[in-house]
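User: Quick sanity check before I run a bigger batch. Here is a single chain. Can you write out its predicted 3D structure?
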Amino acid sequence: MAKQAAKKAPEKTFRLGLVSASVFVNDVETDDGNREFRNVNLQRRYKDNGDWRSTSSFGLQDLPLAIRVLQLAQQHIEAAEVETHPF
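Assistant: Done. Predicted structure follows.
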């Protein structure tokens, strides 16, 4: 039976209202050694019959918040890349 990977916590989450962008770090072994790659998960929370749920669907009113949390995530990733890979 295959062993299920444990869920990894995000490195950083940016949240405005009910919209959030979470940055996850993935370690990948390459020919040049171990390398980190960052990915962003964008979501909106909402209540459904009293239960909180998440979706990747955004209405017009959500878009400014989605854009802003994505900008913050981008700045975080750029800063991490500069620190990790100095030129």
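The mean pLDDT is 90.

User: Great, the batch can go ahead then.
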